[in-house]
Structure formats: C-alpha cells, structure tokens
User: Fold this.
Amino acid sequence: TIYPTPAPDFSLSRLEVRDDEPITLPARGPRLLLAVEGEVRVNGLSLPGGGSLFIGADEGTIALQGQGTLFGATAGIFGS
Assistant:
C-alpha cells in the first residue's frame, strides 16, 4: 500500500511480508524501514517489531523475508 503525500520527494508505504512471498525492492535511493509487527529479515539482518533500519542509497537491491508488517519511507515512490 502506498500512501500519497503532498510532497513529491517523499513516499510512505506499508509492506506485508509473508514467508511464502518474499519481497525484493530495487536499488533506488535511501530508505527508512520501521517494523510494526512480526520479524522481517532485511538482506539477512533481523528486524523485529518496533525496530527500525536505515538503508543507504548505495546498498543495492533489498530482500525482505519473514513474517511481519513494515512501513517504509523514501524519496519518490517506495518500491519503484
């Protein structure tokens, strides 16, 4: 789910990650992830509910696995 904002240079999205459907996000700018429930592995690093993670612009493709809900903020449209 992408939540529109009045600022074209900011995007907020909700991601539901399920073990049977890993998510891959393309390399595109810096991102901030906030886990609100469950536990998700971000490029192999565990991110439990309540945790946050900054991903720099040079990190490349992002692989999400596990079981949980994340909110993500980035420049432009998240995930594109």
Summary: The CA atoms of residues 57 and 68 lie 24 Å apart. The mean pLDDT is 87. The radius of gyration is 12 Å.
